[in-house]
Each structure stands twice: as structure tokens, then as C-alpha cells.
Records
---
Amino acid sequence: MSVRTFTLNDQLITAAAGQSILAAAREHGIAIPTLCELEGLSTVGACRLCLVEVAGSQRLLPACTTEVQEGMTVVSESPRLKHYRQTILELFLAERNHVCAVCVSNNHCELQNRAVEQGVTHVRFDYLMPTLPVDMSHDRFGVDHNRCILCTRCVRVCDEVEGAHTWDIMGRGFQARVITDMAEPWGDSTSCTSCGKCVQVCPTGALFDKRATAGGMVKQPSFVKVLQHARARKESQ
Amino acid sequence: MVKKVLIDPVTRIEGHAKITLHLNDDGRVAEARFHVTEFRGFEKFCEGRSFREMPAITSRICGICPVSHLLCSAKTGDGLLAVTPPPAAVLLRRIMNLGQIIQSHALSFFHLSGPDLMLGFGAPPTQRSIFGLIEKRPEFARDGIRLRKFGQQVIERLGGKRIHTAWATPGGVTDPLSEENRQAILTDLETADAIITRTLTAYKEMLPRLQAEVNAFGQFPSLFLSLVTPEGNWEHHHGMVRVGDATGQVLATFHEREYARYLGEAVEPWSYLKFPYFKEAGYPQGAYRVGPLARLNLCRRIGTPRADAELIEFRQRCGAVATSSFHYHYARLVEILAAVEWLKVHLDDPRTMDRRVQAEADLNANEAVGVSEAPRGTLFHHYTVDDHGLLTRVNLLIATGQNNLPMQWTIRQIADHFLRGPELTDEMLNRMEAGIRAFDPCLSCSTHAFGAMPLHVQLVGSDGKVIAERYRGGGE
């Protein structure tokens, strides 16, 4: 296995070739904030929260999809990055109707946690307040598009782990929406196996157990990593 | 010339409101109006949400009585699931409601009305607040704060937090009561018992001196509405809805799902609050009072020894049916004692500690009505949902709404009694506000528990011109 050495926040770090900046940072106990990324799923660089500064690049690059290069110099914490991360989170909060107080994921929400960690105290943008539906047609689960941040974790886990590909994205830009099958009610979906993986990986209260109360939904997304690891082991035997 | 007196805002109540008095040519009150100036829109924006979210959403209507909405909404949810919650869940909900009654009644009596009762209606506005009370009557103020704290802790020990817990759900509650918390409530109960016992004694000693207020603060016959047990006893969470009149005659007893058959809601263009009335008697004659006074007037007995003895004394002092709204204060104290005694009964009931607290079910009905007694009166929630449980119609009948017309009549009576010509004294203004405070109206989450509120009073001529104006400054 070839090795790459690079500098992260003035610290010399060794990583495997092909490893992302995010994975290498994690191995060395350096936390970079993420939202759409989840260990065990493919990376899409959708949320842009893990942006880092790379010497020689004018642009900020997402740590989750940028591979480590030999000799590169990376900074994951700076006033500039803080500003961008706060702005990104504020845009998330302004785009749909995130009402934490009555949300099933209150106090257990990744969006809320990131906002607190990054010091978001106000949203400086006008709220769009779109009129978005709630779909409660499924027997066990509900989807509230008001709380969706389009991270596509549900789409990826359903496709890559469950293999059903019930979820996908419809529309473009801020009008994009996660859909089941051909934009049919979730309860009418013929491909959904009702496994609940999408609910567990959803970082906010967008996908939830129908019986959950406000603040009562504690998700366990770490199963994806365990499942992928177990499968890999079985295949290698 | 017709004149108008305006009190805006009304202070030391929960929410925002103003009073206008329309005077006729000889300076007497022609009409009194209590306007609720807030618009909240909960009934509308809940549409499209799941009924399972409603306990949490509706409890956000208020920071003083979130438990009332929480429990009423959970009960309505029980109806949509068509289940009976396990006995432990019902008992635990009752315990939380008793905690809620204690904390809210303590807030109303000690913090909000205490300054008027203890310092006098004419005390300087800067002193007539909980802070003035702490200075002049520290032991009384301390009792009030402790008693409220006890009630809040009952709520916290069940629901995990004092305000806006989402612990009650359709079908039951999320968590049982731990033995540790049961013991803690029982221990603190003794202090609460001592406080309410001495407060009741003190109030009864004071009552003969308050005869002018008793006679002028909403002393009129009216209908009353509250929950009663099937035996006709005091009830705060389950039971039947009863309507009775000022002579003690029962006019109707019905299940909450029939509320629309018996109760109508009128709308007036000058207030965001609706005007419910008993249909059989028509509008406005069918306006009725709810809350502690109604509950004590309509029940046969309370069901615990000391509260029952107090109820007998209450009736001896105030009449078989107490018709003065000033007696809301007294009724509140009797109810605190009732709640303290009932808490002990429920906490000693072995069924309370059962671990099974949730009935599991899916949606089984498209429409349900729930009812519960909020501290300030009977609360109805009425939901209609589609086949997936998304709300298509929400109707909330709130205690303060039901007291709306009696509050108008009370202001009118006080103004008639104390207003002399265009002279607006501070004491007179405060008496009108105090008349409203007796009902402990809860207009929203915002509690104006601080005495020195700005008070804007205008005398307006029939041509709309301001004839006289007075502004009482202060900080919020």
C-alpha cells in the first residue's frame, strides 16, 4: 500500500493513497464538520460543510471527496472556513421550515448540532418558508420535506446498502425534493422494503418513525459502517 | 357626547389585551370591551401536520399552561387511535395535571394577584408587583414561589422538563414514574401542604375586608361549565362536561364529543378571541364561566377530606353557588389543597408505578374531541384527520375564550362601580385590570408578571378625537 504524507493544520500526517482528507483527518483525531457524509456510504460532497483550504488552490475543497496528495498543505480550521460553514448552515436553516421545538429530532439532530458547534446564533437570510407536504402514507415511517436538507443519505443507503433504490431526487436547485419510486406516496411504493435504513441515516427529522414524539427520535446511523464491514469480511472469506 | 376609555395593555395577565370603555353622555359606562389583540393562528397552521405532533405543537401555545394542551391533545389522540391508555398512564397524566394546577394557581394568586390583595389596589404601581410583594410581605412571596416551584417540579419529575415537555402522547405517556421521583414528590408534598394550609387561613381572615371587591368584581348570575365525575364530583381530566346555572340547577351533562351540539362560538369584529356560549340559552345569555369557580360550583364534593371541608366552608361564605368572580381567588386556593390531597392519593396508588404506560395502535378514527381542565378552565381540542393522520381541521376551545363574555361583564360592573366621570385614577384602572386578573386569563405564552407596565388610557370622543390621555410609564 503506497503512502502519502501531507500537512494538516501544521501537523504532518500519513495517509493511504486514495484516502480522502476527511478520512485521514479522522484517523488522526482531527474533527472536520460534516452533514451529508456517512461512513459506509459513498461520498457526494453535497453539503459543503467539510470545505478545507488547500495551499495552491484558490477554491475551497470538500475534505470528503478530495484525495490526499503527497506534500499537500491543508487547513481545516480558519476564520474564513468558520464564516463559510456558518453561512452554509444558515442557508440550510433558511431554505425550509426547521422548527426545532416541535421536531422529532430535537436535541438529536445533526443539523442542529452542527449549528451549535459552529456558533450559529442567528440566521442572517430571509426564511423562504416554502409550503412543503408531509407524507404519512407509509405504515411505519413519515417524511417531512420541511426538514429535509437534501443530503441524499437516504438515496445512497437505499441504493448502496439495501439495494432497493426506492429513494431518489426530483427537481433542481432549491426546488429539489427526495421522492419514493416515481414521486408516489411512500405508502404506495412497490420497491420499498420498509427496512427503515433511510430513517436511521437521515441527519434531521425529515425521515422519522411515525410514533415518535418531539425530541423522541434518536437515530443510530452507525449500523451502516458495521453492515458494510461485515459484508466485506464475508466476501473475503 | 359618547366617550371611550382605553386601557392598553392590560397588565399582569398572561398575554396581550386592552380594555375599552364606551361612555354615554352622563359619564356612565355604555359598553365595556376586553379585546385580545394577539393573533396566533394555531388552528390554521396545524393543518397538514400529523396528529401525533399535536401534543408538542399545541403545548407551545403557552409557557404557563403547556401541560393543559399537552394532556388535552394526547387525549384527543387517544380518540383518534380509539384506544384506552393503560391505567398507569391515566394516573400519571392526572398527577401531571395536578402539578400544573398547583403551579399555575400559585402563579395567579401569589405572583399576579398577590400584589393587589396584599398591598392594596391603590398601592403605587411601582410597588404593586411581585418585587414589591417580596419587599413588603417576604414570607407570603416566598410561599408563592415555593408552591409554584413544587408544581413545576411535579411536571419535571414526570416529563423531564418543567416547560414544554412532550411526555404525553396519543395512547399514553412516554415514560413511567421512577420510585426515586415518586419519593421526591411525596417529600416535597408536605411543604406544599403547609403552605396552602396557612394561605387558606390567611385568605379567609382577609375576605371580610374585601366585601366591596366581592360585590363589584363580576358579581352576577351566569351559567357555569366544568368537568365532573360520573357521580358529579370534582374532576380535572376525565369525566363528563356539565353546565349548571346560578341557582345550582344542572342544565346539561354531556360527553365531550357532543360539545358542538351544546356549545356555540360567536365571533365579534373587535377581538381575536371567540365567544363561546351554551346554545340552549342563546347568545349572549348563554355565556358561561369556567375555571376554579365553575368547578367548585358544579361539583357535589371534591373527594378528599380536607378539601371537602374547605368546600363546605367556601359555600357557607360565598353561597351555594358563588356568583362573584372575585371568588375565583378563593376557589383557586381550595383547588390547590384538593390537588395536594389528590396527589398523595394517586402517588400511593400501586397502579401508578406500573411500567406499562403506552397503548400501541394505529389510526382508527378520523375525528376526535378531547377535553381536560386547564387551571383556568375547561379546554377542548377537536381534530379531524385524513386517512394518514394528517390534520384537515383543528378547533381549540380555550378556557379564556369561554370566560370572554363574563370578563366583559366584569369590567363593565367594575367601571360602573368605580368610574366617576372622566376622571381616570390609577386605582380605578388597576381595579379594572384586577377584575380581569381574577379570571387568570391566559392569552398566550408571554407572561406580564412585572407590575410597572406601561398603561395607555385614552378618552375618545364620538368623532374619534382624543379628549384626554394618560400614560403610565414603566419597564417590561
---
Amino acid sequence: MSNRFWLAPALAAALLTACSGPSADQAARLPILGERDVRPNPNGGPADTIFATAPAFAAVDQAGQPVTNQTFAGRAYITDFFFATCPGICPKMNGALLSVFKPYATDPRVAFVSFTIDPAHDSLPVLDDYAQRLGVTDAKRWHFVTTGHSATARDTVYGLAKGFFTAAQPDKEAPGGFAHNGTFALVDDQGHVRGLYDSLDANEVARLQKELPVLLAEIAERHPKATAAK
Amino acid sequence: MMGRCLGLGALGVVACLSLPGCFSNNRHQGARLYAEACAGCHGDAGQGLGRLIPPLAGADYLALHRDELPCLLRRGMHGPMTVNGVLYNQVMPAARVDDKQLSPARLTNLLNYVENNWGNHAAPRTIQEVERQLTACPTVGE
């Protein structure tokens, strides 16, 4: 009988060691999401795995400043897609993101980006008003961005939404004329999407709040100097 | 005499047992409708969202516009409105559950819930009162 009591922990320990392998002493890591590509090494060595990265974007925020992938180089950022006159899920979605944002409101390690999917209506003053009304006063911390006024601006942002694993499209039946789901994407310092969270589910929002520090710890490991300087 | 008393007593017991049974299904209807149709924007506790979505908790608007609220829920609302001295300007869709507009009875339960929670206190509404207020409401978007 007493042998059995020994068996369970021993088995668990063996399993843990087997699964975690060489990185047993490393902290938990978030997965890298998206399709990965395996490229044969021209020199005959082991093949390279190319991990998917978030799509390239060039937008302008509520302060009139350009925002691109480079804006967040070396830092984490969280994205969502919304529109200012959205009577559907946006208030809940951005309310949830606000609760994630608040503890990090002055933390430069992570930034927030909300893309408008209605660039024809959401001009910079509209985006600025929206941000102010939500309680976001510093555009550098939470960018409310538009892909511009061109005829293709809308297609651009729909493409981006897809690239950040969410969906947005015009829909006359949907409240406010656009259908979209409220997925948050967590992107790392190298542009990889590391987490997707359904903003309408409180458990998912809590998971983002738990996983963001895990990613920040990983980034700090990669940039020991930047962390030491702080 | 004794028999009649017992009979009345039994009737009373039956009435007492069956009455709550009749109402129990709808007892929390206001809270359920609120959770389904309103909480997404106005918050689980009627707290609103910044200066985007007005609060319902402690909102002066509820008392100041009491008679208009059934119409406001039935038809939705857009354009500027002031709540507790703060100017809001968003679109509020008509309150719908399962893609259906709310009946006068459901509106009554919903309003009684909103008007008597989170520190709000108002005289209870009757269905007749809500029906009357709805007939005065222009039939736009129905």
C-alpha cells in the first residue's frame, strides 16, 4: 500500500522531466501562433523553422503620429479592432482592454493598439475623442489608429484584422453596419503573435492578464541590458 | 363551522404555495434581461464606461426622464445626452433579446430592475403605465 503512495509523485516527476526536456529550468513560455515554415538549410545542416509574424502595418494614431510595427520593436503590444460608433460589442471589448491596460498605463514594456475598421468615419479627432472618453490620455501608451482616408484603407484594415486572427467586415445586419469579433492579440518583441483572447469572455481576459507578465519576463530575458538600465 | 375553517385554511395554504410558483419564473426576469441586453455596454453593475457609455447606477437621467424610458429602450437612442452633468454622444441600439423587441411586461421588469438597483430607488412601474408610455412613443424603427 505505502508503495503506491510513492508511485504517483515519482511518476509525475518522471513525466514532468520528460515533457519539459532541456528547458526544464526555464520559465513557462507562451506558444508562437500561426503557420510555421520549415526551410532546408542550404549548407546541409538542420532545417530552419520560420515562425509566422504579425502583418506589416502603417497607421496614424489619435495624436497624428505614425504607428508601424517598428513603433513596438523590442516591446510587447496588444491589438484589437473596433469602430467609434459601434453599438455592439466594442464597449465591452474596449472596457475589457481598459482593465488590462490600467496596471500597465505607464509601463513602457507593453503598448496597446486599437485599429478602427471604419476609417471613413473615424477621423483623427473622432479617435482622439474616443480615447479621451475612454480615459486614455497618453496616445503613446494606447494608440487608436486609422489606416487612412484612401479608398483602400478599409480593405487594408480588414486584411490586418485577419492577420491578427480576428474578423471584420461590413454587414448591414450587424449593429452599426460592421460585423467583427472581439479578439485581442498579444504580440511579442519580435512580432510573433503569442496569444489570442476573446474579449467578451471574462475568463479569457483574465488569461491575458496572467499571460502578459509571462511574455514580459521572456522579453526581459532576451534584452538583459534594457532591463538592467531601468 | 370547524370544517369550513379547515377548508379555508387549506385554501389559504394552497394559495400561498401556488402564488410564488406562478411568479417565480419571472422573478428575476429584469436581471436576466439586463444581463442579456444591457450589461455589455452599461456594465454588470450599471457603472457605464468612461465618458463613452453613461452609467445607470446613480444616474439622474432615470428620474428626470422617467416617462420616456420605455420609448428609449424600445427605439434606442442617438445624439448627445447629459447624465450626471457629463455629456455623452453614442448610439444606443433598441433593447432586443433573441432578436425580438421587448414586450411591455418585459420592459416593466427591466426598468424596475434598473431603477431599483445599484443605489437607485424609484416607485415600481406597472405594465399599464409602461403600455401607456409606449403608445405615446413615435413608431420609428419598429
